[in-house]
TrEMBL record, chains A, B:
<feature type="binding site">
    <location>
        <position position="13"/>
    </location>
    <ligand>
        <name>diphosphate</name>
    </ligand>
</feature>
<feature type="binding site">
    <location>
        <begin position="297"/>
        <end position="300"/>
    </location>
    <ligand>
        <name>substrate</name>
    </ligand>
</feature>
<dbReference type="GO" id="GO:0005737">
    <property type="term" value="C:cytoplasm"/>
</dbReference>
<feature type="site" description="Important for catalytic activity; stabilizes the transition state when the phosphoryl donor is PPi">
    <location>
        <position position="141"/>
    </location>
</feature>
<comment type="function">
    <text>Catalyzes the phosphorylation of D-fructose 6-phosphate, the first committing step of glycolysis. Uses inorganic phosphate (PPi) as phosphoryl donor instead of ATP like common ATP-dependent phosphofructokinases (ATP-PFKs), which renders the reaction reversible, and can thus function both in glycolysis and gluconeogenesis. Consistently, PPi-PFK can replace the enzymes of both the forward (ATP-PFK) and reverse (fructose-bisphosphatase (FBPase)) reactions.</text>
</comment>
<dbReference type="InterPro" id="IPR000023">
    <property type="entry name" value="Phosphofructokinase_dom"/>
</dbReference>
<feature type="domain" description="Phosphofructokinase">
    <location>
        <begin position="9"/>
        <end position="293"/>
    </location>
</feature>
<feature type="binding site">
    <location>
        <begin position="190"/>
        <end position="192"/>
    </location>
    <ligand>
        <name>substrate</name>
    </ligand>
</feature>
<dbReference type="InterPro" id="IPR050929">
    <property type="entry name" value="PFKA"/>
</dbReference>
<keyword id="KW-0418">Kinase</keyword>
<dbReference type="InterPro" id="IPR022953">
    <property type="entry name" value="ATP_PFK"/>
</dbReference>
<feature type="binding site">
    <location>
        <position position="247"/>
    </location>
    <ligand>
        <name>substrate</name>
    </ligand>
</feature>
<dbReference type="GO" id="GO:0046872">
    <property type="term" value="F:metal ion binding"/>
</dbReference>
<dbReference type="Pfam" id="PF00365">
    <property type="entry name" value="PFK"/>
</dbReference>
<dbReference type="GO" id="GO:0006002">
    <property type="term" value="P:fructose 6-phosphate metabolic process"/>
</dbReference>
<keyword id="KW-0460">Magnesium</keyword>
<feature type="site" description="Important for catalytic activity and substrate specificity; stabilizes the transition state when the phosphoryl donor is PPi; prevents ATP from binding by mimicking the alpha-phosphate group of ATP">
    <location>
        <position position="115"/>
    </location>
</feature>
Length: 420, 420
């Protein structure tokens, strides 16, 4: 078979280390240049393929590609665009095949979360049903840590580290000031359906009574009275109370504490504003002085304090994806497998996409304490190694050096455009 | 004169490096142990003196004191408590003299901002008018960077670094996603009356057109239509718009964009919620998808990415305060003086407290661009060196090692308490 090119794209919310996966893909493909041609990156994810808007990564120097290791966010642009099923929108698939054929693309690497795994699976299915041979490999990435079959998802470890450190630092601030000033601090973190990120804040605590004193998980129904009673008791006992709240915190009936009418491209409701809502409760019911923070994008782009473990894994799944492709595999995802034994270890193994797409891995209930406000020792044991190591970028004049690629477009070969 | 003890306390909002000043004070006092006795730290600032709640720093090991260099927030506790004038509340001053006499305290080191400089000045005045000899030295600290006579204030450089880095990182996130998702990102930062912190976000930009695209300063009256027009133009031209807004942003008539009824101990209104207010404007008028973050305490406690320059200066002002005391000085503050020449340099020089207390240094107008939405080259030249260098803490198991002191109380010598 003549040598074919590869398509690589980033999808969904970006992370501090998704570019490390890109680096793993491109460096490994270059290493196997006798088997794989050029890696074409989609500008803004799958949309780049639909629009025939491809980036020629062969025009980037080796040092620029290496620089992706220390550069946050999506260097090639990402997107929120979910492919419909073949029967619902056949035109999109026909267009993809047209573009792939035009550029001799035989490998499809898609770097994303659960929704993107679904896109990747559909590409593999398209290849079979529409008789266009393509190997579709999904590269895991999501700060939500909710992909099944993999022990954890690249991107999560760095958010976890950022949130754990920020919680510890802010808690020391409140502890210093609580005698005459702020008594309650609320940090709102991401996590729509699964409380993994909120749980990571629990790593801030070293001793009994340390902050965070209350963690709010989407998995545990929010009870206003129970929450306020715990805040009050904590302030009475400790002098202050630190709360870390997942944006997905909801009442028993499934309504969020703050509902917003904005809906994203995947049909998910856009959340936010939970921290001020909780602060309002604390003020009106308990009268404590409060402060609140919303980390939002700061948490998922915080490359300046990325986890070395996370970075290594992000690179490894990118590298493994290319190796799987060369080995002739299709419709799989490199998964992270945790080793047995007390010392943390991990390896990469393949997982079938059919069992990953559109699945959400929830936190095991036994990672959350019985009262629903904290993490257990089992939770801590799972989370702790994911934040090991500090993968610092280099700095110049006090600012991190983040790579800017040339992003040279590949000449279009098709006469027609495509409206996305 | 027999050897006297020293009182040291932390006041007002804490910073990532205020403990470095404490380290400078304690290490230098230990070095001059033939001239200065024990450094007693006030628990929770001046309140510790009023309550005779003193901490014996001589019980802390040399390595614990060194550990303060890498520990954020106020290790001895801080407070928001402003002394009234001698005529208004003579009882407080009489109590202070009683406590200082009981513990043979002849040196008063107060580590804070403008309000605290006022407290420090009053202590010096009290010493004279009430015939109790005490040398009061103010040690500058404020993230607001609004102390006069000093080129900058310790604590600011680290916040500036954190905000500049966070802005760059978040901006890369939006840039990756803007094609199909978030178009506008708003980061709310501290700065009640002076826009220094918001200005620091301007260091995130390297090239024309880089984020932040709009900075909102308290110094520039907010004009809704002008703001929205700029947001729209930026999204049209760049695909996305990053806004950094000072919490003190206000309309021409002096009203804040979001007013809150909460007032702190110094009589300042407690602000917050500007970011969602701006986001609401963007949504209702322009319809763009947005995200917003509020850094709040995360910015001022972010020791994990402190500026080395800031850290060095924080230590130096603590050290200089003790040296001034030994040299017999009173009612002064060690100020940071910027050297001439192209290469950044600084030294410490004394400044009189009378000219510091209750003064606020505003940003020079020529640091802000004519349109009021950015920083000029002059502003950049001033700000840039303050974030030079990365003063990383050490880590264990992925988390920074922050010092916990023993905080052993000094035995009380007075029969009576004092209600604060």
């Amino acid at each position: 078979m003549p040598k074919q090119n590869a398509f690589y794209a980033q999808s969904g919310g970006v992370t501090a280390v998704i570019n490390a996966s890109a680096c793993g893909v491109i460096e490994t493909a270059r290493k196997y240049s006798s088997q794989i041609g050029t890696v074409y990156a989609g500008r803004n994810g799958i949309i780049g393929a639909l629009r025939e808007d491809l980036i020629d990564t062969s025009k980037e120097s080796a040092s620029a590609i290496r620089g992706l290791l220390t550069t946050p966010a999506g260097a090639f642009g990402s997107c929120r665009h979910k492919l419909k099923s073949l029967t619902e929108n056949r035109a999109e698939y026909e267009r993809l095949i047209e573009v792939f054929k035009a550029h001799n693309i035989g490998y499809f690497f898609y770097n994303g979360g659960g929704d993107s795994a679904d896109t990747c699976l559909k590409i593999a299915q398209m290849g079979e049903s529409m008789d266009y041979p393509i190997q579709a490999i999904h590269i895991p990435k999501t700060i939500d840590n909710d992909l099944p079959l993999t022990d954890n998802s690249p991107g999560f470890g760095s958010v976890a580290k950022y949130i754990a450190i920020s919680t510890r630092e802010a808690a020391m601030d409140i502890a210093s000031m609580c005698e005459t000033s702020t008594k309650v601090f609320i940090l709102e973190v991401m996590g729509r359906h699964a409380g993994w990120i909120a749980a990571a804040s629990g790593l801030a605590a070293e001793q009994e009574g340390d902050a965070p004193h209350i963690i709010l998980f989407p998995e545990i129904a929010f009870e206003r009275e129970k929450f306020l009673a715990r805040v009050q008791r904590t302030v009475q006992e400790r002098g202050y109370c630190v709360i870390v709240a997942s944006e997905g915190t909801q009442y028993k009936d499934g309504t969020f504490l703050t509902e917003s009418s904005v809906v994203d491209a995947f049909g998910h409701q856009q959340l936010g504003g939970l921290a001020p809502a909780l602060a309002g409760m604390v003020r009106s019911e308990l009268g404590y002085k409060y402060h609140w923070a919303v980390a939002d994008y700061l948490q998922r782009s915080a490359r300046h304090i990325a986890s070395q473990t996370d970075l290594d894994q992000a690179y490894a799944v990118g590298k493994a994806a290319v190796e799987y492709a060369i080995a002739g595999k299709n419709s799989v995802m490199p998964a992270i497998i945790r080793g047995e034994g007390k010392e943390y270890s991990w390896s990469i193994s393949e997982a079938p996409l059919e069992e990953i797409a559109n699945q959400e891995k929830m936190m095991p209930r036994d990672y959350i304490t019985d009262d629903g406000f904290g993490i257990t020792e089992a939770g801590r044991e799972y989370l702790a190694p994911l934040i090991y190591g500090e993968a610092y970028p280099e700095y110049r004049n006090g600012m991190p050096i983040y790579t800017r690629l040339k992003l040279e477009p590949v000449a279009k070969k098709l006469a027609t455009g495509f409206k996305v």
